Amino acid sequence: MKAIAMTGLKKIEIIDVDTPQITDDEVLTKTLYTSISPGSYIQRFTGEDSRLTGGGVSYPFITGYLNVGEVVEVGKNVKKYKVGDILNVLCSVRQTSCALYNGTDAEYQAVNVNVPFVIKLTGDSRHSAFQ
To answer: Which one of 57, 84, 92, 110 has the minimum C-beta count within 10 Å?
Structure first.
């Protein structure tokens, strides 16, 4: 799959990474919309983020923490969501190639449905990534 990653200080690239395999308590979502945080992204891009001091970040890491995606696969323990549901996901994504951020700026997300901040959307979801 494709992902947006910071590959070094002041370097952003679209990279290829493996599509995550879900666990029994996760769903796989295909990204419809993702949002950009100008504050934290700029701090990381320029190296001004305090979490970068002391070697706290390794590259590459997939940026992003909020996403709207369509469920394309459901783990065997998941009863709350089904294929086709549209989810707004905040800070509950698991990406293996991400250092500090959880990687919602990617084509697919493995979403743990047992944590807060996963919301099933109804109606027009185009603006939900900015809530």
So the answer is: 84
- Tell me how many domains the chain contains: 1
Q: Is residue 130 part of a domain?
A: no
| pLDDT one-digit tens code per residue, 21-62 | 899 999 999 999 887 777 767 777 777 766 655 555 667 777
d(CA 32, CA 55): 33
Give the separation between CA 47 and CA 90, rounded to whole angstroms: 24
Residue 108 and residue 98: Cα distance in Å, rounded? 13
**Residue bearing tokens 């992902």:** 3
Is the pTM higher than 0.70?
yes
